[in-house]
Amino acid sequence: MLLLHGHGVDERDLFPLEHVFPADASVAALRGPIAADGGYRWYAHHDVGRPIAASLAAGMAYVEAWLEAQEPAGVWLVGFSGGALMAGALLLSTPHRFAGVAMLHGPLPFDAGVPLEPGRLSGCEVFYGYGELDAMIPPALTLRSRAYLREESGARAEIHAYRAGHELIAAEHRDLARWYAALT
Questions:
Q1: How far apart are CA 178 and CA 68, in angstroms?
Q2: How far, in Å, CA of 147 to CA of 108, rounded?
Q3: What is the pTM of this model?
């Protein structure tokens, strides 16, 4: 299990999710390569949810290099906000490399050089959780991400809306734990 944090924090931010997964699951967290906003990020961006393509590609290469050095099997990605976008970019770049991907409160990387053709994620396992009251992620990007995952991607997508802002809530933890348990 690889946890990918959001912008302005570090690799410790998502460790509270560790209890969501069984005790025998190996959980790791990687720090984004760009220092920013008192923490770190995965890529530079034009605006929230709109990464600069070259920077996103560099961030993806950074994560891939780390994964290659670990040589793990059956990798699951769990990302929040900018980490969710990074998780989605990695999945779109290499479908079926990951056992499953959970994108929490972050959009897919539209218009950033990542392939998004219909059927791209055919058969891939995706959990997509978002806050209906999220003031951070532009609603149009959330709607577009949700539509792509549900209607075009071919993924086995489980999509959940939460009465929440840009935050993880207990119901999301429970849904994520149930999704993971059903697939393992």
A1: 29
A2: 11
A3: 0.95
Side chain identity at 16, as an amino acid letter? P
The tokens 């990695």 sit on which residue? 90
Amino acid code (one letter) for 79: G
Q: Say if CB 8 and CB 37 are below 8 A apart.
A: yes
Domain segments of the chain as ranges: 2-183
Reported CATH class of domain 2-183 = alpha beta
The DSSP secondary structure of 58-78, one letter per residue, reads HHHHHHHHHHHHH--SS-EEE
- How many other C-beta atoms can be found within 10 angstroms of the C-beta atom of residue 57? 17
Question: pLDDT tens across 131-184, in order?
Answer: 999 999 999 999 999 999 999 999 999 999 999 999 999 999 999 999 999 998
Which parts of the chain are beta strand (E)? 2-4, 28-30, 34-36, 39-41, 45-47, 50-51, 76-80, 100-104, 125-131, 156-162
Kindly report the backbone phi and psi dihedral angles of residue 156, in degrees, each rounded to the nearest multiple of 5, phi listed first: -85, 85
- Look-up of token digits 């791209």: 120
Judged on CB neighbours under 10 Å (0-12, 13-18, 19+), 83 is buried
